[in-house]
Design brief:
Blueprint: H1 2-13, E1 18-21, E2 26-29, H2 35-45, E3 54-57, H3 60-64, H4 74-83, E4 88-93, H5 100-103, E5 108-113, H6 117-126, E6 130-134, H7 146-153, E7 159-160, E8 173-176, E9 182-184
Parallel strand pairs: 1-7, 3-5, 4-8
Antiparallel strand pairs: 1-2, 2-6, 3-6, 4-5, 8-9
Helix pairs in contact: 1-6
């Protein structure tokens, strides 16, 4: 898998935007700490910055670095840990490390520890969480293959990781960590 990920890792480390397979659709990603890379991602998607984006990580530490754990009860954390790694995205209260350009107009931040082997390995080798938003222009259907990503974005992306999706029909469920309410089913 090393050769497969090398172009994407090089792009991510230099402020690029990449596409990669996730549980249900192809995702667009970049370094969430890089405001310029995130600005470029929003421009590519033609997505309003007010909507924010979610983050994926290879492990708990990568995503929890962006949340405010002090306000989350232990029982809620147990629910989260029972679903990760896996196709569940949780909205936590944002911590001080969560950039405004990731949150958009929201007080919380959506995070997931992915079980998708390629996405997880990309985060692991990058050494940090990544932005993960569906690979499509705002309002269009998400790409479900590398070929669809290339057709939608052409040379605008810095790298496309080719690989199988994780088998989900719909994008991952999103829940509020404090209430458990389903925000996207």
């Amino acid at each position: 898998m090393s050769d497969l990920l090398d172009p994407a890792l090089t792009a991510l480390r230099s402020g690029g935007v990449v596409a990669y397979p996730t549980e249900a659709v192809y995702g667009l990603g970049c370094d969430p700490r890089d405001a310029n890379a995130c600005e470029r991602l929003f421009a590519l998607k033609q997505r309003p910055r007010t909507q924010g984006v979610l983050l994926i990580g290879a492990d708990l530490e990568q995503v929890l670095a962006y949340v405010d754990l002090a306000t989350v009860p232990e029982e809620a954390l147990l629910r989260v840990r029972a679903t990760w790694p896996g196709p569940y995205t949780w909205v936590f209260p944002a911590g001080p490390a969560a950039p405004a350009w990731i949150r958009g107009d929201h007080a919380g931040i959506a995070v997931r520890v992915t079980a998708h082997p390629i996405a997880a390995e990309l985060c692991r080798r990058f050494g940090a969480a990544l932005v993960s938003t569906s690979a499509n222009r705002h309002g269009a259907a998400p790409a479900r293959s590398a070929a669809e990503v290339r057709a939608a974005f052409g040379a605008e992306l810095d790298a496309v990781v080719d690989g199988p999706l994780g088998g989900l029909v719909q994008p991952t469920e999103i829940r509020d960590v404090l209430s458990g309410a389903v925000l996207r089913g």
